[in-house]
Write a structure and sequence with these properties.
Layout (H helix, E strand, L loop, with lengths): L2 H48 L24 E2 L5 E2 L9 E3 L26 E2 L26 H9 L3 E5 L5 H13 L10 E5 L7 E5 L2 E5 L5 H10 L24
Parallel strand pairs: 1-4, 5-6
Antiparallel strand pairs: 2-3, 3-8, 5-7, 7-8
């Protein structure tokens, strides 16, 4: 074989080796990207699981419970004064809110529910609370699957929210009915329905609806008085102490916003 033929043969072998290396590199890259794709798909699957609908009330299963208030000696609320029920809704218990808001004036001011901001825990005289001193940071309104700090929920009442609480032992079907009830209500302002739905240990009835200064005990989520209660007190110019205050921009992430 001539020198020139040997050189051409060497060059061809070198080109073949380079091509082989390039093909091997391409195979490795495809394997790497295939692995990345599997990982991305796995992450996406996890995200989908996290955001699956919760119950029949819509929303998502992502939830962040509002943080507990600071530790310390609790502020003890004096016994709330019961006054005549001015609502026309059977079973509603009314408490003195005189002067707060100024238009309610339904009892002696000296016994009206206080409304101071306090950093620590509060011991309320009504279960669940219908008002009183509370934490300075409210929670975002919506449905929570776990109990929430009462001191933050009371702040929501001050802003005009309705707090629907239920015994943790309430059948799941009825819990879902309460969640569906919340999602069926109109959005009032700021993208919020101004309704909280949460379990509450030690509740004196299966379901209790509360607003600032008013409360209604129920045995069924389909009781028509629940809607009457919401219609009467939710973000009411007459009954809301801080009418126009938000139910968003606080702490916590509800299942349903």
């Amino acid at each position: 074989m001539s020198k020139r033929a040997r050189e051409q043969s060497r060059i061809q072998r070198r080109l073949a080796e380079v091509q082989r290396q390039q093909r091997a590199k391409q195979r490795r890259q495809r394997m790497i990207w295939s692995g990345v794709g599997v990982a991305v798909a796995a992450v996406a699957a996890v995200i989908v699981v996290v955001t699956l609908p919760s119950g029949s009330g819509g929303g998502t299963s992502t939830e962040v419970i509002p943080p507990a208030v600071a530790a310390g000696s609790p502020v003890v609320m004096p016994p709330a004064l019961v006054v005549p029920n001015p609502t026309g809704i059977s079973g509603v218990v009314a408490y003195d809110t005189a002067g707060w808001p100024t238009t309610s004036r339904n009892g002696p001011t000296a016994r009206a529910l206080p409304h101071n901001h306090v950093p620590g825990p509060v011991t309320y005289s009504v279960t669940p609370p219908v008002g009183g001193d509370h934490n300075g940071t409210w929670m975002n309104c919506g449905v929570y699957a776990q109990p929430v700090p009462t001191e933050r929920a009371v702040h929501n009442l001050e802003h005009g929210a309705i707090w629907i609480t239920y015994q943790p032992s309430l059948p799941r079907a009825e819990v879902n009915q309460l969640r569906s009830f919340e999602s069926s209500q109109s959005v009032v302002a700021g993208g919020s329905r101004y309704i909280d739905v949460t379990p509450f240990p030690g509740l004196p009835a299966p379901i209790v609806a509360s607003s600032w200064g008013f409360q209604l005990r129920l045995t069924s989520p389909t009781d028509p008085r629940l809607q009457q209660f919401v219609n009467k007190f939710r973000v009411s110019q007459q009954y809301t102490p801080e009418y126009g205050a938000p139910c968003t921009g606080g702490v916590g992430t509800p299942l349903q916003k």
